Amino acid sequence: MKKSNHPKIAIVGRPNVGKSSLFNRIVGSRKAIVEAASGTTRDRLHADIKWKGKTFTIVDTGGFEHAGKDDIARLILRQLDTAIEEADIIFFVTDVTAGVVHQDMELSERLRKTSKSIYLVVNKADHESSVSKGMEFFELASVIPTSSRLITAQA
Ligand SMILES: Nc1nc2c(ncn2[C@@H]2O[C@H](COP(=O)(O)OP(=O)(O)O)[C@@H](O)[C@H]2O)c(=O)[nH]1
Ligand SMILES: [Mg+2]
Question: Where does ligand 1 bind, in terms of residues with CB under 6 Å?
Answer without folding.
Answer: 13, 15-21, 34-36, 38, 41, 62, 123-124, 126, 147-149
